Amino acid sequence: MIITIDGPAGAGKSSIARRVASELGFEFLDTGAMYRAVTWGVMQRGIAWDDVEALVQFADAACLVWQDDRIYLDDQDISEEIRTPQVTSHIRHLADPPKIRERITAQQRRIATGRDIVTEGRDQGTEVFPDAHCKIFLTASPEERARRRQQQLAQNGRAMTVEEILTAQNQRDLEDRMRPVGRLRAASDAIVLQTDGMTPDEVRLEVLRLVRERLEASATNSASGGTSA
Ligand code: C5P
């Protein structure tokens, strides 16, 4: 069974997807970590950002492993290294070219094969798993997302103003919405959850309720489909 959670930066997708997965006994896949990992690998090797052929070759040969909430590139655990602002600012070079997305999409499908999984990203319900059993699009206003991010950073001892965060976030949202393939959008059959004014716990409970409702409906459908066939 596949549950997809897509949405813009700072909507809280990772923490919600992780918790929902754990409550349902599903696995969790952070697909942003995969784009971050190949971006980090390109930075290490010093491949030019405009050399798309070399980037495609690198993505093709890269061995990405997602295990126990950690990301490995060619056997190296780089789960912390991928979270720097430098990596974030270069991801578009790997996330934009359709040929690179094809490779990463194939790896995501391979990872999900035979598993019950909650997968989180931008294009999971639209491009990667169009037949997912339940699709959620988690979002909040740009200001609310920036405020949450500022609080999170402050808790980790990093001071940034909401305006600074908002500017960077708007730029990322724009890049994520404009790419030719895999752009950020809700699938036509996704449930859109607008989380302004909700606490993380309220969001978690609402997502769980929606997911359970959808999974029950899809089990009922396939049971009645089975009877009438
Ligand atoms: O989710 P996270 O913020 O770690 O994702 C980093 C970036 O990776 C996103 O801003 C987006 O450009 C890219 N991404 C993507 N498709 C996904 C997941 C992430 O293009 N499924």
UniProtKB/TrEMBL annotation:
GO cellular component, one term: cytosol
Binding site for ATP: 7-15
SUPFAM superfamilies xref list: P-loop containing nucleoside triphosphate hydrolases (SSF52540)
Top enzyme class: transferase
Compartment(s) of residence: Cytoplasm
Reaction equation(s) it catalyzes: CMP + ATP = CDP + ADP; dCMP + ATP = dCDP + ADP
GO biological process: nucleobase-containing small molecule interconversion; pyrimidine nucleotide metabolic process
Alphabetical UniProt keywords: ATP-binding, Cytoplasm, Kinase, Nucleotide-binding, Transferase
Pfam families: Cytidylate_kin
InterPro entries named among the record's database cross-references: Cytidylate_kin, Cytidylate_kinase_dom, P-loop_NTPase
Cytidylate kinase domain span: 3-212
Enzyme Commission number(s) from the entry: 2.7.4.25
GO molecular function: ATP binding; CMP kinase activity; dCMP kinase activity
Alphabetized HAMAP family for the sequence: Cytidyl_kinase_type1
Family as reported in the entry's similarity comment: Belongs to the cytidylate kinase family. Type 1 subfamily.
PANTHER family attached to this UniProt entry: CYTIDYLATE KINASE (PTHR21299:SF2), CYTIDYLATE KINASE/PANTOATE-BETA-ALANINE LIGASE (PTHR21299)
Protein name: Cytidylate kinase
Annotated source species: Rhodopirellula bahusiensis
Organismal lineage: Bacteria, Pseudomonadati, Planctomycetota, Planctomycetia, Pirellulales
